[in-house]
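A further point concerns the way the authors explain their paired sequence and structure data. Nothing conveys this as quickly as seeing an actual entry. An entry of this sort, consisting of the sequence and the corresponding backbone structure tokens, reads as follows:
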Amino acid sequence: MTTSSTDATGLPRLPDDFVWGASTAAYQIEGAADEDGKGASIWDTFVRRPGAVRDGHTGDIACDHHHRFDEDVTLMRRLGLDAYRFSVSWPRVMPAGAGRIEPRGLDFYDRLVDALLGAGIEPVPTLFHWDLPQALEDEGGGWLNRGTAYRFAEYAAVVAERLGDRVKRWITLNEPFVHMSFGYGFGVHAPGRALMLDALPVAHHQLLGHGLATAALRAAVPGGRILIANNCTPVRLRHDARHVKDVAAASAYDVLHNRLFNDPLLLGSYPDLSAYGMTDPSWGGVVRDGDLATIAAPLDGLGVNYYNPTWVTAPADPAAALPFDLAEPAEPYQRTAFGWPVVPDGLTELLTGLKARYGTGLPPVWITENGCSQPSGLHDRARIEYLAGHIDAVAVALARGVDVRGYFTWSLLDNFEWAEGYHQRFGLVEVDFATLRRTPRASFEWYRGLIASQRS
């Protein structure tokens, strides 16, 4: 730990070896949707469903990172990043999700990794950020099918064999809760299935895939460091909601959003899902002998994606399918362009809550996503204030004994923001999607200065 208490920005000085990074995802920035033998993903299909994405936007071109990655790495070098978290497109590497390997897809990530290392930036690939090969969705129902977990491990082994001599830190899955709930539960993301609670097997199969991929990565990359990136949220009640039913609703939401995806990893067991009608601990045969041991293989870090707390109350309709209703906070929080409340102390609450719940079983924590959408434009003071507040919240958690090792802001670039298309701007770098010109915002220069100041 350095001796000075603050840096030149006025923020607390974090440990000398703290890692500063930025994150992106393949479908959101790469483009080149049908080039070099790439197969279709579920997002390539979903964006063509009428009304699925605002204004019919697609990721066909996105930021054209596939052709412009050298320019983007130059921006990262200028920013002073220690590490860059990106995702590998499964259908770019294995077009059908299994079987044939597309060498041109691996070549792209090979070039990207070499460019990052040449710039002094650690590559941190995420193996699955929601762009499942469409063939696996067509043939077996995607993550509803247990076999997809095994296909994922095979794909992980292929990527690790190619990149593992240079890449030592790996993230298996990104936000399995969001992929399950938005993609399979409510149908607002790809693959667009609206199964409600019948989507729960997707949670288990993703986690099983994580465990199997972890074993494959450990075999291929001796000394590799394996993480998963879970979207986590502190669960809060409105100030006027204190009935025992409201407390039960908050507990039920915490189970679904947080504990369903953290407990198996860190405790080797699932939480009580009886609020969701899952009284059989095997989920009717979905969870098989040995699965939990596979899922609970030791991690080298837990990635935490944080944006805001979630407020809940008891359901207004006693016959509702879910045992909670989402609510709006009564407090007059500032809002992002997405309408999300800006609550930096929620990140401290979340991190200290993880430490309290899992104790010595909690591995080092990495903030793998944190950022905000703001209106387009280069003078994004609100984004700077957002980042500063959340980085300060990390410092508070560190002071309270949480072992946080790094912070990756979302996102390096404006990008395709899923069902919102290009209407939400998260980037430190503005992208003109008509010309693809990149222009660093004020927040870029602020983050650059922060990183330099932390190192001085």
